Amino acid sequence: MSDLTVGDFLMEVQKVATASPRTLATYGSKFRRIVADIANIKPTSDKQKHDYFNGGSDAWRTKVDSVRLARITPERVTKWKKQYLTRASADPRDQIAKKRSVNSVIRNAKALFSQRNLSQLGHLELPTPLPFEKVAFEAEGSYRYRSLCDPKQILAQAWKELHEASPDEETPKFKGKPLPYDSPYRLQLAQERSASKHEAFKILLLALSVGLRRNEIDKLQWSQFRWAERVIIIETTDCFEPKADSAGDMPVDDEILAFFRERFSESESRFVIAGSEPKPDSSYQHYRAYKHERTLLKWLRGKGIACHNPIHALRKEYGTLVCQEAGIYVASRLLRHSDIRITSQHYVDQKERVVSGLGGTFSAIASTTHQGKTEDDAAA
What pTM does this model have? Predict the structure, then answer.
């Protein structure tokens, strides 16, 4: 039996894999999660697993990495999956959510054992069978998008409440209580809050009217605007790499292009959205404009867009609008999907409700029946 440990395997994969460090870190995290549960390795406290400053995380990871890879069999992974699903409540929505979640964990962990990686690891004595061999995914139900807002209404509200936000209208708080008017920090905090709302409006506009993803917006640079061509170029830059097959030209409405051109003339940064410096080599998903994105997330949830990722919901609204205007093939191309089925299953909502047309006939029948009963009652 192979003595190869989980840690040794992950180290060897890291040497040959072409995925980014952040993606590999995600894959490794999901696999360690499965291994820890199967080997019954639990943190000494709820905080230990995520204690990156005092060594708690390292101690937990060392235990997980010492587990022999041969212990992680398909049978044990399947058992782990079933136990995970038992955590769901009787609510069908929670059951679907758990199925999607467990599939995501398995899908990420299984990517470590891709055929490309394995072809480069011939020098290792890998166990047979491998951990995810013939492990089935759960049926997840429909991913069909249901619209959560009226794009025109949300844009109008965002213009008034985000773009036109003024420090005079802000009420900064400290520990839940409004700061006194004579506080030296009041004006500063009020200015920061209104400025964050202005940035949040730009994020909303790029997601809703151009269909950009959150990370594309976060790392978007002014140099990616082609003013004469009226497009935004999604391309590899010094701090951003598009998802597979997602590079391309994104057409922009003339009026929205004019809005950003004015912002460009006022900007002193190379980035469209204000924020910190990017961290392209980080092993986690770093958002340089997180503060302003959080402002937008809070605002959107306050408008009833209470899904897991409200900013991505704006992109789905964009896809729906394009589909209604030009059809699903154009929507799929502009959303930069590799497969039109993704567009159909995950993004497009049919807002124009097509009905049978029998309403008039039904009304006439019901009216006649009601009239007949009335006459019968009068005769009686």
Answer: 0.75
